[in-house]
Amino acid sequence: MSAEPQDSIFLICDDNAYVRRLVADVLIGGGFGRHAFAQTGDELLEATHALQPRVVVTSSRVPGLSGLAYTRLIRAGYKNVSRTLSIIVMTNTPTVAFMDAARDAGVDEMLVRPFTAQALLDRVDAVLARPRRFVESLVYTGPCRRRRMIDPNATPRRRLCDPLEAREAQEEAAATSRELVRKSIAKIGALAAGLTQIDRAKLREIYAAVGDTERFANEARDEATGDAARSLLRYIRATGAGAPADPDVFRAHIDAMQKLAGLRPEHHDIREEVVRGLVAIVDKRLKRKPQAA
Fold first, then answer.
1. What is the pLDDT of residue 79?
2. How far is CA 110 from the centre of its chain?
3. Which of 20, 82, 94, 229 has a Cα at 20 to 30 A from 115?
């Protein structure tokens, strides 16, 4: 890992509070303790100017300003912000066309969601310890495009150039994972049905089923359902020390996961709103203020 952790300010931008917390937790675990948050394009630009971060980790879709539009603005010269600012963009849609557009915009590294902690830290290490040579020309400003980003294909995705058999196998595996997600959600519902008080033994069973749901959702590349499962896991862990578990919280998560399972991937805004609602419920039950991050 880079020798810069104590000196590096990270600016994290996503309109989903859970994603912002997740990125921050991974960075803290990697030794990067200084970070700030933004959730809209305006906040991202304001914080970039005010804080002069070393690295920005932003979603490709932020209200008011896309990740690529932000990158182009920085590379073109924005106020007194360094044009060499390291920018890592997170995306749910790693198509060949999008990756090419990101490279041409001047993005340093791409991070495909859902991601592992190691995948994020690998990209941080790349921009801090092994940055690509910065190019300034009449037609392009940004990290050298001759040296490629870290391969975003660490997780399977469909490409037109993939062999037909490989694409079909990926589609079949994703369909199987989606079916397993639905079965896991049904199992959680059956375990929690009719409960007015959740005992410790039952809680362990539910915890295992929610963990399965998270894993299958990740395999199906269903980020929102995975986030919903992680929200419930967070609540169960927080109450695992003996505090009473509220069945209403479980029912809210089960209803939300069932709704998410019926929504198509293109219903991004609705899916994100459902997850934000779950995060707010858990924050309230744990008597924490919802993060303004």
1. 92
2. 12
3. 82
